[in-house]
Specification:
Organism: Paenibacillus naphthalenovorans
Keywords: ATP-binding, Nucleotide-binding, Transport
Bound molecules: adenosine-5'-triphosphate
Number of strands: 10
Pfam families: ABC_tran (PF00005)
CATH class of the largest domain: Alpha Beta
Radius of gyration: 20 Å
Shape: globular
Structural class: alpha/beta
CATH topology of the largest domain: Rossmann fold
Number of domains: 2
GO molecular function, one term: ATP hydrolysis activity
CATH architecture of the largest domain: 3-Layer(aba) Sandwich
CATH superfamily of the largest domain: P-loop containing nucleotide triphosphate hydrolases
Protein name: ABC transporter ATP-binding protein
């Protein structure tokens, strides 16, 4: 089966200006991603997990078309991603709703951009608000909704204009543990109902194993794919307590084994960065080409 999304040898570096006092400012590259290759199948739920600062959001921005790789390419249905468009919906950690619009109007927004007529727009927006379990809250404003409800609306908004791929950047990280778990199982239900391809980014191992059909584990910066793990649970949405299942615990342990050193390295990098400024040295000779 051909890939829905094909990430091929992607490198990404950023040029940052360092202020050297009276000397001329010098540009120093930050190597964010190094030789990322990953194929995501149509309808797959792919989770990318990695330590803080390893380049997860950078990768998501590339998938969204918000930035371009320094080298390598990303294909959607075999065609290079040229910029942001409605084929990919994005849900961020911060809810990114318009505070002056009601829940319904927020969900209608993407449809408006797509040129869908008013009546059809309202109908579709109501259906997606139902799908995320918020029927009856259509006329509430964001400030009248809890964090979990706002994130449900953000998901409804991203799904309403029918993107082929849903990109999710730590969408539940700001929520309390119980709301997060509820939304995780809701998301699996929505994924089953819609058949969308989902790429979900997190630094939570448990979240990754619970949600993903496959989990790509990233290294510390420059981010590389360290391993891709198959998650062999077929009955995620059956309602049984998967998290305490011995196989779940074993895979969680396996992923932590892969991540442990990366988390320590990334903590050291963070300390180095705050001591010596933003420009950290690449730690590999084969690092990214400059932009
Ligand atoms: N526009 C930019 N200019 C310079 N450096 C950047 C830029 N965007 C990201 N970086 C650097 O690239 C590296 C990867 O950042 P990114 O935000 O993608 O990591 P992350 O894995 O999403 O981190 P977190 O989990 O903490 O959100 C970091 O060192 C970051 O400082």
């Amino acid at each position: 089966m051909s890939a829905k999304i094909s990430i091929q040898h992607v490198h990404k570096s950023f040029q940052i200006q360092r202020n050297l006092g009276h000397l001329k400012a010098s540009a120093q590259p930050v190597y964010a991603l190094q030789d990322i290759s990953l194929d995501v199948r149509p309808g797959e739920f792919m989770v990318i997990v990695g330590p803080s600062g390893c380049g997860k959001s950078t990768l998501l921005d590339l998938l969204a078309g918000l930035t371009k790789p320094s080298s390598g390419q990303i294909l959607l249905d075999g065609k290079p991603i040229a910029g942001p468009d409605l084929s990919r919906g994005i849900v961020f950690q911060q809810y990114a709703l318009f505070p002056w619009k009601t829940a319904l109007a927020n969900v209608e927004f993407g449809l408006e951009t797509k040129g869908v007529g008013r009546k059809e727009r309202k109908k579709t927006a109501r259906e997606f608000i139902q799908l995320v379990g918020l029927g009856g809250f259509e006329n509430r404003y964001p400030h009248e909704l809890s964090g979990g409800m706002k994130q449900r609306i953000a998901i409804a908004r991203s799904l309403a204009y029918d993107p082929e791929v849903l990109l999710m950047d730590e969408p539940f990280a700001a929520l309390d543990a119980q709301t997060r778990e509820t939304l995780q199982s809701e998301l699996l239900r929505i994924w089953e109902a819609t058949g969308k391809t989902i790429i979900f980014i997190t630094h939570g191992i448990e979240e990754a194993v619970y949600l993903g059909q496959r989990v790509a584990v990233m290294s510390s910066r420059p981010g590389r794919i360290k391993a891709v793990i198959d998650i062999p649970f077929n009955a995620r949405t059956s309602g049984e307590d998967l998290r305490s299942h011995p196989e779940f615990v074993a895979i969680r342990h396996q992923i932590w084994g892969l991540l442990k050193d990366e988390v320590h390295k990334s903590q050291e990098q963070e300390m180095e960065k705050s001591l010596h400024g933003a420009g950290a040295k690449p730690n590999s000779k084969g690092a990214a080409a400059n932009e």
